[in-house]
Amino acid sequence: MKIHHIGYLVKDVEKAAKAAEVLGFVLCSDMVYDSDRRIRIVFMENEGYRIELVQPDRDSEIYPLMKRYKNSPYHICYDIESEEMNAAIERLSEQKFALFKAPSRAVALDGDVAFLMSPDIGMVELVKR
Ligand code: NI
Predict the structure, then answer these.
(1) CA of 9 to the centre of ligand 1 (A)
(2) pLDDT by residue for the chain (129 residues), tens digit each?
(3) For the chain, which end, N or C, has fewer CB atoms within 10 Å of the first or last residue's CB respectively?
(4) Among candidates 79, 50, 78, 75, which has minimal Cα distance to 62?
């Protein structure tokens, strides 16, 4: 499966973007506020590598992850391209990936995303655009 981005959890998305610029990343999206997820989010690119910087509000369901991850990568997102979302989820579910966030609209990606957890390789996001 093709990697779409690496998701970083960050305390301050603007400071994180500045630090990523030092590492050679350039902005490739606007800084967006996703009011459903209560996160500030921006995408950056460095020679084909794309990262997503996610700053959750305190009342975001993602916020509790800050305690565990601080400023750190926390998921890899795969573009399922031609596969249907439900087919991809079903296929992964047969391989011990557990769906914990059903497909829903992601404003910043202009597509649907779902999240699964593997006991062996951690959090995985799927995007269908
Ligand atoms: Ni993501």
Answers:
(1) 10
(2) 999 999 999 999 999 999 999 999 999 999 999 998 999 999 999 999 999 999 999 999 999 999 888 899 999 999 998 899 999 999 999 999 999 999 999 988 889 999 999 999 999 999 998
(3) C
(4) 75
What separation in Å is there between the alpha carbon of 113 and the centre of ligand 1? 8
User: Is the whole-model pTM more than 0.85?
Assistant: yes
Distance 96 CA to ligand 1 centre (A): 20
Rounded distance from Cα 77 to ligand 1 centre (Å): 5
State the DSSP H helix or E strand holding residue 26, giving kind and residue range, or none if neither.
Answer: strand 26-27
Distance 6 CA to ligand 1 centre (A): 7
The C-alpha atoms of residue 100 and residue 124 are separated, in whole angstroms, by 10
